[in-house]
Amino acid sequence: MSLTTLVTFVEVFKVNSNNNKSTIHRLQNGKRDPSKTTKQNANTITFKGKKFHYLPFVYQGTTLNRSGDNIESNLVMANHPLSMAKAQTAVANKYFVEVNVCIMSNDNIDNLKNILTSDTWLAASLSYDPDVVEILLSSSIDAVGNNIPSLVLTTEAVGKLPVSSDIQNR
User: Fold this and answer.
1) How far apart are CA 8 and CA 99, in angstroms?
2) What pLDDT, on the 0 to 100 scale, is given for residue 63?
3) Which of 34, 80, 112, 127 is the most exposed place for a label (fewest CB within 10 A)?
4) Which residues of the chain register pLDDT less than 70?
5) What's the confidence (pLDDT) of residue 79?
């Protein structure tokens, strides 16, 4: 029997009007060592040079509706004051959520082997019951409401822009 260690890394962030990213939370669901709760790094994994703290959650992948106009995913957590507070803040402020699902080394959970998926979502809505808090993650473009993120193409962001729509490749 083969064992594959999967860890999901979630970075919750906002983007200001100057397109500067500001991280709110960095969470992971793979490493919790209750015997070392007093140590600073006992419940963290370093991913892409940043520390991600433990919070138990399940990432429920990507679903596409039949018309293909919107893509959704879910983060499911136990209903606890800590998870509820993080979820409410993310949805109320319409934070972005970057999710990386990774294969880690079976011998040492701190060693990354491969990144399986990397997606960026918008924290769209929240539902809960006495046991579970669920954050609906949606693609940042909403085809039904015709809303797109308020980003503008600028020379600083993408380089020189054409001044005409008459562009041909010859």
Assistant:
1) 7
2) 67
3) 34
4) 1, 34-41, 63-70, 140-154, 161-170
5) 93
The structure tokens listed for 64 are: 């596409």
User: What pLDDT does 23 receive?
Assistant: 92
**Cβ–Cβ under 8 Å, residues 101 and 127:** no
Are 12 and 77 a contacting pair, CB within 8 Å?
A: no
In what helix (H) or strand (E) does residue 87 lie, and over which residues does it extend?
helix 81-92
How would DSSP label each residue in 1-34?
Answer: ----EEEEEEEEEEE-TT--EEEEEEEESS---G
Closest to 126 (Cα-Cα) out of 92, 160, 154? 92
Q: In what order do the strands lie in the sheet with 96-104?
A: 44-47, 50-54, 21-28, 5-15, 96-104, 112-128, 132-138, 71-78, 57-64
**Distance between CA atoms of residues 41 and 34, nearest Å:** 12
Find out whether 55 and 82 touch, Cβ atoms under 8 Å: yes
CA–CA distance, 143 with 56 (Å, rounded to integer): 32
